[in-house]
Amino acid sequence: MSVKNEDLNEVNTAANPNKITVSKGSKVDHTFSIAPMLDWTDRHCRYFYRVMSQHAVLYTEMVTTGAILFGKGDYLKFDKAEHPVVLQLGGSDASDMTKSAIKAQEYGYDEININVGCPSDRVQNGMFGACLMAKPELVADCVKAMQAKVDIPVTVKTRIGIDDSDDYAFLQSFVEQVADAGCEHFIVHARKAWLQGLSPKQNREVPPLNYPRVYQLKQEFPELQISINGGIETFEHVDEHLQHIDGVMLGRAVYQNPYMLAELDAKLFSCAQPILSRRQVVEAMYPYIERETAVSDTGYQTTAWHIARHMLGLFNGQPNARMWRRYLSENARKYPHGIEVFERAFAAMEG
User: Containing domain of residue 344, as a range?
Assistant: First the structure.
């Protein structure tokens, strides 16, 4: 099997041709990560985030096993600059999950994360997401099968409960069974999910947050890596949570105000590198934008809008932030190739 990522170390399948053996090197530091967000954390968004932070762990949008195994597009493509990057996988068939995991490792992903947190009807109909909390043995089977074939870690993102199954004993039992199968890292959204009656958006807002429940999990399973997610918006919040657990995951707070990442490495990782200005962040994106929006003969064309849409919030809280958002929103499709629309947006802000 070929390995497409240049950063992977030695691959040796001679001893067991059915298993990819990869020298993993150091483990990923999950102190701070950015949540998988459907339609948002695509490869362009992740590259943009990496320009601002070298330490944040990046997650893909959820990709289903069906898309990976039977889809026509290249759903696993990413830039090597994105490392460390985690593929979030949607599915529940152990065989398909394992085949997808092997592909993910071939591409060079640092880890694979199983989605056991999304409550949408569409996801439930596919038998993955939060509904799998009711079937811990199925999740455990997937973890065990995947870890038997790949050497990169398989992790789980989940909720604190579902529907009326929302006491600590339910969460404790789920984690215990899945951990016994080989999962060593759980990312826990500190809300339960209602599988009926609430939209995905409402499920991010209506069920109350219960951070102590996640802290309790870490206390009972000190050998596991526990990260927390849900309602976390500032570095002050991040610091508070890190007193109790191993890692913090932010989602929409970062997407709406991405420039907070520019301070991340200095605040959490004591990096001495200078913090880029907002304009420097955009200019650092220029080579990527030029490369990605060059005229393609593959049948799919990346345009400036595919990238610019993730950058609309870069100037939030700054003078002329509205002009930046408005100009890119109205004009990025008119100038689909290269950096012209960004230079014009700067001119509009300054004029």
Answer: 278-350
